[in-house]
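Page 42, continued from yesterday. The earlier attempt failed because a stray header line got pasted into the input along with the sequence. Redoing it now with the clean sequence only.
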Amino acid sequence: MPDTVVGLFRTRSEASAALGKLKEAGFGPEQVSVSTPAFRRRGRYGLKVVIGIVVGTILGALLGAIVTGIVPGAHPLISGNLAATFALAAVAGAATGGLAGGLLSMSASGDRALFYEQEVESGRFLITVGGPRLEVARDVLKAAGAMEAEPVEAPLEPGRPRPESG
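This time it went through. Structure tokens are written below.
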């Protein structure tokens, strides 16, 4: 269930006007935050991808080595050296697992969050409104000229405060 409404604006003046209208509608500063090209929230998407790659690499290496050891008829690829076969299978599994882990973690990061981050980086202004009365906030943002005003799930952990307005 969405707990935040986001509005995307082309210019600072449009975003400022929307903030004024939100204030008139009764939304307090603890409910509203702004992401601007100079002040962005850090989503740590790169960290999530790195973690996915590391976990995928480890799991792929283990799985590759285990499968090589238990598959009937698997013989050493290098004559007389079973350890080299395990090492080769571990490297192949690590490469495959690392790629899969990276791709899965990127898709799990949330396409919408990445979209909004890229929009802010390209010069747009993002206003987020949390709390009750999300329909009212959405209507106010649309009336203020938002390119887009949609409810989304906020990527915040419980108990973590919202970023300050910028």
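Notes: The chain has two domains: 4-37+123-152, 45-108.
Reminder to self: strip header lines before submitting.
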